[in-house]
Amino acid sequence: MKFSSILLIGPPGVGKGTQGKVLGSLPGFFHCACGDVFRTLDSGSELGRVFTEYSSRGELVPDEYTVRLWHKRLHDLASVGEWNPADDVLILDGIPRSARQARMLDEYVDVLKVIVLDVERRDDLIERIRRRALRSNRFDDAREDVIRQRLQVYEDEAGELLAHYKDRAPATVDADQPPLIVLERIIGIVKEAVGVGSFDRRNGAGKRER
Known about the structure:
The protein is of the alpha/beta class.
């Protein structure tokens, strides 16, 4: 089966994780952040070493490793009952990051909508990322050269990635607004994409008619 999904796409530091967590707290939705998945890795494992090698340079982890790890994580979460792939809409954040990843994910996900979060002033994003890294004691992520490299990688990949989903009519949200305003706009887009009327309120907000 394919997993019904909403994609949150945007440059690093734009707030995908913040918004994704809020959406994922709602019944019938489950937030899966690729960055969180990577951070659960054992640094001594094969995938852990690969992640450290690439992320320390601000580069993308190779697609095969990323998709493999992402799929295994979802399988593990479903196995222990933390999410129900038959009923929960996945809120994906940080994956796919390239058109090639998107093509690989086509086997697994049914994309209901693509939401692009963006901020016009890239210097604002650099400061956001630096503050977040320092709060989390991720000092390598606070280096400006690494941050700028991550932003450039996003810019290089974004056009082709969004072109892959052009039939989903990606919706752009100005993330340079108060988080509550951003959330309100995102929820409006999600309601339209998922179809509020398709939720069976008698059996819980997360149950959709089949």
